[in-house]
Write a structure and sequence with these properties.
By secondary structure, this protein is α+β, with helices and mostly antiparallel strands. It contains six helices and six strands.
């Protein structure tokens, strides 16, 4: 509750900081923009960082080889059903055999994460873990498969067409 109140009280400052790129003093905290990529890495032209709402937006279908979700996909922010929806949306953004990296910095400062590979029927497999791995590993591995529809005609239609 306390964190929720602090967050609500600082919403205008966060919006101002994110929109202007300048530091902004809130009621309780000072907010500053965060660079997601180093200038050297961003300048290669081989890596693209995008801002996206992984709960709602359905853009970027099958566009990425690697997606990293850091400090967002965890149970302290979202319930399992919401996390499943986010994971399904992220899965749609990955190319076949793409990698999903889910990581989190714990309150004591340690990093935990898991790397998943997208396989057949949209199932993820666990490729690697850092420390204890992601707290949502079981949720990722248990994500419902993608329903594959075939473009082949029904057997009855095939035999009718051949007659």
């Amino acid at each position: 509750r306390l964190m929720s109140r602090i967050a609500q009280a600082n919403v205008p400052s966060v919006r101002s900081c994110c929109g202007s790129g300048l530091s902004e003093r809130g009621r309780f905290l000072t907010f500053r923009p965060l660079k997601l990529l180093s200038p050297a890495l961003a300048g290669t032209g081989r890596i693209e960082a995008v801002e996206d709402d992984i709960l709602r937006d359905r853009y970027f279908l099958h566009r990425f080889d690697v997606l990293r979700a850091a400090n967002i996909l965890n149970y302290c922010y979202f319930d399992p059903k919401t996390l499943e929806k986010m994971l399904a949306n992220l899965r749609e953004r990955l190319r076949p055999s793409g990698l999903l990296i889910v990581c989190r910095t714990m309150p004591e400062g340690t990093n935990h994460g898991s790397v998943f590979k997208l396989g057949e029927q949209g199932r993820f497999s666990l490729v690697a873990e850092l420390n204890d791995g992601s707290e949502i590993t079981e949720l990722v591995l248990g994500l419902a498969p993608i329903q594959v529809t075939t473009s082949e005609p029904e057997p009855a239609l095939l035999s009718a067409a051949a007659a």
